[in-house]
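Quick check before the chapter quiz. The format below is the same one you will see on the exam, so make sure you can read both the input and the output lines.
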Amino acid sequence: MIATALLEQYNTQLKFFPKNTVLFNEKQEPLYYYQILTGNIKMFNLTEDGKEFVQGFFEDNNSFAEPPLFGNFKYPASAETTSDSYIYILPKDAFLTLLKAHPEEHLNLTQLICRRMIYKAKIMKEVSIYPPEHRILTLLNHFKTADKQQNTRYEVKLTRQQISELTGLRVETVIRAIKKLEKSNKLSILDRKVYL
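Here is the expected output.
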């Protein structure tokens, strides 16, 4: 992410947001670049029946919601804190000025956005056509790969609820599918924690 010292050169503000604070809603105009110092954010859409479909979770040292700043379109999802959070907020104009002055930061951010787009393309395919076990395994393997833990045992840091929100499955379905995956030796469960 963008170094704190560089953000501070552009008069960014570090703000505290209590848990369950909505930072912006779907279809609002993008006004700020957001980068988490500490905390957790979820980006989500509400379905017609009022259920949440989570687009992603973001934590310490992650930025989020950048594409609308570049594309001049409204936010495609809402963002809410899931824990008390300290977040750097930089106005859109200052953010774009920073990137023009520091092309290496722009390249890093572009690469990050591309990785997120690949993830979304993979997940959309999985969510729409495959059974629950396959969806969950694809999601967990994505996070394992993203954490660069190919050949080691990987502890899944997502809760069953978060897996449910990311795959569009009910929590009960996630629990049953994880048990099936354990029986087929595709993952293991120790002390209620899931490992790949």
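If your answer matched, good. Strands lie at 13-17, 22-24, 32-38, 40-46, 52-59, 63-64, 78-81, 85-91, 188-190, 193-195.
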